Amino acid sequence: MIKDERYKEIMQLLRKTGTVKVNDIMDKLDVSDMTVRRDLASLEKQGLLKRVHGGAKVNTFNEELSHKEKRIIHIDEKRAIVKKAIEYIQTGDTIFLGPGTTIELLAQLIDVADVRIVTNCLPVFEILNQKKEHQKIYLVGGEMRNNTQSFFGDLTNKIITDLKFNKAFFSCNALVGQEIMTSTLEEGQTQTLALNNSQERFLLADSSKIGKTDFCVYYRLDEVTELITNQDETHKYKQLDSSSIILV
């Protein structure tokens, strides 16, 4: 049995019972103890489960990964999402780009002329600054949060409060029902200000975020213009209370 098929079977077992033992997976899939533990480690890194003594359980509370880790997981899904999102950026727009590795991928694709872009995320700014012909780019500073390489706090919020945008593109750590969540209250407050000052709001979130919870609820799905997410084998998007979902 190939790796992806094992992953699928393990997740199906977890969805049935909420927990699964290593021995049960070994018996079900006819694989070694070492293979099971390696698979569980990989699935945990993707945020799909939480390893416990002797097995694993459903991961409902999101454990934030490092910026480096986020850059390499669910990369194909993120690329499909930003390929769709780029269609909404047009000449003459004034847009806000929030923090996150998905938004960094979006920044790499932006080649529209006469666009004004504001961001509080250093990696996003650096990507845009390398190809800034025909674009005006603004980095909003303040106190930096290392895990997301983004700025937040009183100084950041003071500047964003006075700015208005046609469109905002942002991501999240977790998404349940109507609740859009991130890991810190301060970063959530900065995102909220930018979103409230935007005419249209586009949430870019791969399906691994759906069904997870995190510390701070900073926005509601019914206030988002569109959620752009990927189809997955379990159709996680059906868990969400929204009619404004674009699937890629």
Automatic annotation (TrEMBL):
Keywords: DNA-binding, Repressor, Transcription, Transcription regulation
Protein name: Lactose phosphotransferase system repressor
Taxonomic placement: Bacteria, Bacillati, Bacillota, Bacilli, Lactobacillales
PROSITE patterns in the cross-refs: HTH_DEOR_1, HTH_DEOR_2
InterPro entries: Carb_Metab_HTH_regulators, DeoR-like_C, DeoR_HTH, Tscrpt_reg_HTH_DeoR_CS
Pfam families tied to this protein: DeoRC, HTH_DeoR
Molecular function as annotated in GO: DNA binding
Positions of the HTH deoR-type domain: 3-58
Function recorded in the entry: Repressor of the lactose catabolism operon. Galactose-6-phosphate is the inducer.
The keyword Transcription belongs to this UniProt entry's keyword annotation: yes
Key word Repressor present: yes
